Amino acid sequence: MNSAPKVTQLRVLKSEWKKATTLRSTYVAVAVAFLTMAGIGIIISWSTADDYGQVRNGHRHRFDPLIDSLSGFLLAQLVIGVLGILLVGGEYSTGMIRASLSAVPKRLPMLWGKLVVFVTVALATMIPAVLIAFFVSQNVLSSKHIQTTWDAPYVSRVVLGCAVYLTILAAFSIGLATIMRNIAGSIAVLVGIIIVLPAIATGLPETWALRINKYLPSNAGQAIMNVGKDPLFLSPMRGLLLFAVYAVGIVGVGAVVLKRRDA
Amino acid sequence: MIQVDGLTKKYGDKVAVDDLSFSVKPGIVTGFLGPNGAGKSTTMRVIVGLDAPTKGSALVNGKRYAQHTAPMCEVGALLEAKAVHAGRSARNHLKCLALTTGISTKRVDEVIEQVGLADVAGKRAGGFSLGMGQRLGIASALLGDPATVIMDEPVNGLDPEGILWVRGLLRNLASEGRTVFVSSHLMSEMALTADHLIVVGRGKLIADTSVADFITQASGGAVIVRSPDSDRLIEIVTHAESVTAVKQPDGRISFVGTSCELIGDLAAANGITLHELTAQQASLEQAFMDMTRDSVEYHASTGASQ
Fold first, then answer.
1. Would you call A227 helix, strand, or coil by DSSP?
2. Sign for the pseudo-dihedral over CA of B188, B190, B191, B196
3. How close A94 comes to chain B (CA, Å)?
4. What is the interface pTM, i.e. ipTM, of the complex?
5. Under DSSP, is residue A196 helix (H, G, I), strand (E, B) or coil?
6. Inter-chain residue contact A7 with B140, CB threshold 8 Å
7. Mind listing the pLDDT tens digit for each residue in B78-124?
8. DSSP, res A44
């Protein structure tokens, strides 16, 4: 092993891991993301099962044991996004960035380090979270025989796709915060892109909506969780791929401005 | 060794550093002196690659900072006091920096000990006082055991004991043969620590001189004398030396360009009684202000604002 002092990508990666794991906010955010992703679907499934006997006619077919068990992703996506923003923006808000960039003046290794650390953490926590959400929910629902199974059509793609969507969002948030350098501004833009934009787009007339809505980042990414064919959405794989392209694009812009701007 | 060559840095239309050239040599403490807004911090930020120069270059040991394979081991820099994540402990902060370059944990503990933060190394840096933050910044600068140390206003926020400690540290680092480059806007502070001075104002070089020369120049060697036999004294002194003598309204004589010793000896040799013999030192602060008067960025108006 070479122990001569030298900046290497692997060492910067270790440093970024240390940075992430020595902040309380990381643990809090990861725990909240995990609990919301795993827990909300279970609570909804439990309440659905509890309510099932008294369900009014209309409600029954709106319930979907697969999608509803994963409904925690709506909140988890915000928590994941905010954590990514904190990992980058926290350096700027505290002044740490100047120490970080003095240690790694080539700068990009730091961005790649953060990206690898956070994408790994997101994937490693969200995969178990979606599996717990799905299997516990189905177990709860099985008391009323309204559950689905892992082998049913679409199920494995939707469940694992949900975790992949959240992981790509993790990379997206790192890129966004690298461009914005500001926590509050980054969160506003993230919420704007992920939640507000699709909501506004629903107000478009149908011919326009058909053309535009499916290409919005979160709509594209969430296509992986679609069952059946909906003309308003891209096909699952194309949608997820487009979302990944958005993430790569925004990280790429982040890399360019990080390299060029004065710190 | 730091070499700044034709360095210009503009932020939009504002010129922060204007065609600045100087070099900083190893083995001595070089003070970087100038009023607020003179471009000291900007120059230091360019040296460690945080800001890119608009024109010219700043090299450390012959290379741009970012081109070194282990930059922290070439140059240690203390720029702003708190370049630390408030939520991380001092030890973890230093470990994060050390990991990037493969610096050992043993070295982390050494610098913590050296700056006197051992008792609080496990505490969140957000709770640190200005002085403790400054010590942590100095610890980060020393982490890579660098041959060149750059510090921007290192005594800011330190108590008298801390100030003494920094002065000692800087002198020590220089005596170990390192290049030590320290900025300050206080001439008196620099007179105590620095051997050489780079004086800047409005981004331009005003002086590149040794501290000793600066002091001699500044104080001008005026000697104030009171004597009952002043006319004869003036005659003798001006005869013996190329000295200008000015008789002041109160009867004292002010000799410029000589020393107390010389006047005293001449007076004794000629049997002239002296009632007063005082070396008049122009204050260094005054000399510095005179030198930079035209280049002070922000004048405080003493009268009413317009």
1. coil
2. negative
3. 5
4. 0.92
5. helix
6. no
7. 997 678 999 999 999 999 999 999 999 999 999 999 999 999 999 99
8. H
